[in-house]
Design a protein that fits this description.
homodimer; alpha+beta; Chorismate lyase; 2 domains; 6-stranded antiparallel sheet; 8 helices; 33% strand; elongated; DNA-binding
Chain lengths: 254, 254
DNA sequence: AAGTGGTCTAGACCACGGG
DNA sequence: CCGTGGTCTAGACCACTTG
């Protein structure tokens, strides 16, 4: 009977709006109004193309828009499914904590997976950010963080090897980076600069985060400093824009 | 002679990557490597389709990707043009300043255009955010901010009418909102909550900001409080993701 | 084997901008 | 008028999932 419902959908081909846009809106409204449960499968693109009286590429593009809004998820060979809208509230600027610590406090279950860890030369770009020389060694760390079992962000971190001998032997999956730095090396982070922008995933990050290439990310770049003003870590985190909200509270300083 | 350069481009149709993706990357690299100046017109889609040996819709989709990355801008009837990459560094969390004040300090020339200003009833959503009753009156203000002449973000602000009688008569184009609140009403903002997310523009906002609907925005929602803990303003700002970087510095508090 | 989405083609018509 | 991008069609082949 499900098909009967969808079959009522239609668009006005006379309107000056693109058909794919009208179809996208029609589907969106239909899903909202009828409160289509998440994980419901949409009719096939073939079927929809008949309903709306357009070609399949047009339907494909319409659904593409819904996917970019994270309303649906496509699975090759299976179909298109309504997504449950989840957002993880996320505190990060309030106090000077690493993202891992911030997550811990929130009480949500989260896991860390180390994608890669190695020692490399800084190179000109990283060296400039960290006020090192390009040939200096740094520890490179790439971690994937999942919340409630779902991938939410990846972080790439660079730390000066000189300051943290043996760092690669630490267990980054079960302890937060900041706590390792403070407890194992006695170097606490006392200041951090952060830069935030919108970005797009690389093919690798899209795979890790299980998102399409078209979905925007929130990029958070950070430089952490120790008490003597030297750089302790340079990091770049990429968050799924559909799963994360960053929040903070600011008070008058004077 | 420009055509000669572009004509060298090609892709490997045997690769397992979509053609539109390969073409997009090829064009991107070509623009970067040859430092194609901004405002240069790309070859027509027709021409490119011949060069790459694919159909025009495929070229169209490839260029679509570049547009979403804000590398090019399409103009109907004219062509596709390379965009100058401009980013406005933007301090926002450091201290408790309004966005207007933050801009002023940055030294960049900026203008404010009032799109709309009126008194309305709060409604349930706004009332909840501002701890008002749905039927309470609020002043609604929608402003477009331009930096160096280009639209960069829109802000919608709601303020409780009761606290600020005659507010609509103020000149919001030449003074910042916070300074009006403090100097005209003696109510300074001492605390603010901020929530940040990625969003997509409404058709109206896309027009105001001169961006395609596909381009993501940074949304900054804020609630400002006065000394007695009451809500002074609720605002929602939407920034062009390709023009803005938000930055902050955090210190250890304890 | 059948059904799904991913992608592509060759051609088409339109609206817009500029000569 | 012509060249541009915006959009659409009808059909196709592929890779993947499921029965």
């Amino acid at each position: 009977m499900a098909k009967l419902e969808w079959s009522q959908l239609s668009i006005d081909k006379g309107k000056p709006l693109p058909r794919y846009y009208q179809i996208s809106k029609a589907l969106e409204k239909f899903i909202e109004k009828n409160r289509i449960p998440s994980e419901t499968r949409l009719p096939s693109e073939e079927y929809l193309s008949k309903i709306f009286g357009v070609s399949r590429p047009t339907i494909n593009k319409a659904i593409q828009l819904l996917m970019e809004k994270s309303l649906v998820r496509k699975e090759r060979g299976k179909g298109t499914f309504v997504i449950e809208k989840k957002v993880v509230p996320f505190v990060f600027m309030q106090d000077l904590t690493s993202l891992g610590e911030s997550l811990k406090k929130s009480g949500l279950s989260f896991t860390t997976k180390v994608i890669e860890s190695k020692e490399i030369r800084a190179g000109s770009t990283i060296a400039r950010e960290m006020t090192l020389k390009p040939r200096d060694l740094v520890v490179y760390l790439k971690r994937l963080r999942c919340i409630e079992g779902e991938p939410v962000f990846v972080t790439e971190t660079y730390l000066p090897s000189k300051k943290f001998p043996g760092l690669l032997k630490q267990d980054f999956a079960s302890r937060t980076l900041y706590s390792i730095l403070e407890e194992e090396y006695g170097i606490p982070v006392v200041k951090a600069k952060r830069i935030l922008r919108v970005g797009r995933p690389s093919t690798e990050d899209a795979t890790l985060l299980k998102i399409p290439l078209s979905q925007p990310l929130i990029e958070l770049e950070g430089i952490a400093y120790s008490g003597d003003g030297s750089v302790v870590a340079y990091s770049k985190s990429k968050f799924r824009g559909d799963r994360v909200v960053l929040s903070s509270t600011v008070f008058k300083t004077q």
